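Dear colleagues,

As part of the handover before I leave the project, I'm documenting each prediction I ran so the next person doesn't have to rerun anything. This entry is a single chain, and its sequence is reproduced below.
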Amino acid sequence: MTELIQLEKQLEGLEGWQLVAFSAAMSERLFPNYQLFSRLVGFGDHQQLRGILDGIWNQLAGSGAKINAEVQLDNVEANIPNLDEFDMYGAMPAYDAAVAIYSTLTCLIEGDAAEAAGVANLSYECVANFIEVTAANDQMSDEELVRFINTHELMLDEDAFREEVLERLRAQPTANAGFIRDLRLLAQNEGVSNIGISGDDA
């Protein structure tokens, strides 16, 4: 968690487009969680959210029409699941993914480091909750649970991914299509999300 406090300070040194690219990368890795939930329960339009995220990537790469972020905020909001209405774990990672895209759009409008840090926090908490629900022992003390989560393979992957994205962005002063394409490919992770699931599993 200390890492995430430090992260916001690191993000404050980035340009607006870098903050958006960071948020888009984190959202991309979260997206299969939404896709699978949407397909399984018939909630939301995962293709619409996919299109919005694609639009953000295309704008970053300079290869598509400029996205109307204000309009798309409403579209994303309509696709965010209400956690009170779904008595199943899968709604939580789906919620995180949709909110991450919403925050990425906000970042596109405002260029705010706090929004970008918020996306990273959503992804971190998503992984932490998944590990706690699926792998932790309920006999663990709080300290043992924190240690278990922080040393779990999925969390180590999460930390490594976030650092890789940051390193690439720090080394890239200006956006270009090739850089954005490669960053997007990294974030897609061959269609596997931050908690190890594929959106095509349904």
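DSSP finds nine helices and no strands in the chain. The radius of gyration is 16 Å.

All the best with the project,
I.
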